[in-house]
Amino acid sequence: MAFIYRGQMNHENVFDMSTQLSILQLMDMFPDDETAERWFVSKRWPDGVCCPHCQSKNVQEKTTHPRMPFRCRTCRKFFSVKSNCFMENSKIGYRAWALAIYLMISHVKGVSSLQLHKELGVAQETAWFMEHRIRNAWDADSIKFSGEVEVDECFIGGLERNKHANKRLRQGGGTAGKFVVVGVYDRDSRMVAAKVVEDTKSTTLQKFVTEHTTREAIVNTDEARAYWGLPRRRKVVDHQAKQYSIPETGATTNRIESFWAIIKRAYKGTYHWMSGKHLQRYVDEFVWRANNRELDAEDRMAQTVRDGVGKRLRYKDLIAEADKRLLCRA
Ligand SMILES: [Zn+2]
To answer: Fewest Cβ atoms closer than 10 Å to its Cβ: which of 135, 215, 249, 255?
Structure first.
């Protein structure tokens, strides 16, 4: 059998985003808060304003209410385009929200709350909360793939000694203190799904794979024993033998590994620390950007608005049980 040996992984740019919007184009799109608000309204309700409480389209516009420009004639409630979505009760202006979304959809490695705080001129804690609200809007629906997929796991986290006692994982070896993320890349749709899991035990990883693939799927993995006995047709590459792809069978996990490479670069270069409590939301951020990379930039912004409907995230829920000191470093 002819194997391809490579000293260094050649990560294909499979997750590059299609088009970008320049800062100048963004300034033209959002010259002031009123224009930005109209943009949010047109993207959330392309077929006309609809009451977020009762879905009625019988809506009075331009009310005299200071923050709620719409009033539903059916249920009589006032609302704004921020009602019942990721921007619920936010005092941050529409232009700043548009800029935050723009920065997050534009940077493949994400934007830190420190950076956003500087760009928007808001407190870092506010920037941090805005980013988590957007990540929460990007919370992915569970997908089930039926074609040929690549499955792999990745370890995220810093040195054990730098962590709080309650954040330490009691594991040995090179993965001590790290969090495990398992992911699947579907070659047909070119989409990804990924989840933070407890450990790398066979039952844990196989549960993820069976939840995200149908019986017909063909699953590419590395040689890890955890995948032995997986109830799916399987192709294996032996990374320990420096085997990365087998041309005869098409066996490789290169693409899901490219996805991990983005998260790892972001962890080192952008976030430096991702709290275990919020790690799934960070993972959702990378999954969302990967799965929407073929949309053009304004469509990615509009998709964020649509995905954010009904996704309220309250500050007190976000910080509950969390260690704020550590979180603010993100
Ligand atoms: Zn209503």
So the answer is: 215
Token reading at 316 = 């007190």
Residue 328 pLDDT greater than 50, yes or no: no
Position 9 pLDDT exceeds 90: no
Ligand 1 centroid vs 60 CA: distance in angstroms? Answer: 11
Task: Using the mean position of ligand 1's atoms as its centre, give its distance from the Cα of residue 63 in Å.
Answer: 15
In a domain, 292, yes or no: no
> Are residues 72 and 189 located together in one domain of the fold?
no
- 40 CA to centre of ligand 1 in angstroms: 19
DSSP calls for 248-313 = TTTEE-HHHHHHHHHHHHHIIIIIS---GGGHHHHHHHHHHHHHTTTS-HHHHHHHHHHHTBT---
Q: Are 152 and 280 in a shared domain?
A: yes
CA of 54 to the centre of ligand 1 (A): 4
The sign of the dihedral angle between the CA atoms of 56, 59, 64, 69 is: positive
- Ligand 1 centroid–CA 77 distance in Å is 6
Token digits of residue 147: 């074609």
Residue 234: closest CA among 250, 254, 218, 251: 218
Domain span holding position 220: 148-284
Average pLDDT over residues 122-127: 95
Report the domain count for the chain.
2
| Residue 11 CA, ligand 1 centroid: distance in Å | 50
13: pLDDT strictly greater than 80: no
Distance 97 CA to ligand 1 centre (A): 25
Summarised one tens digit per residue, pLDDT across range 18-29 is: 778 999 999 999
Residue 276: per-residue pLDDT = 77
What is the 316 CA–ligand 1 centroid distance (Å)? 27
Domain boundary among 284, 299, 319: 284
Mean pLDDT of all residues in 141-165? 78
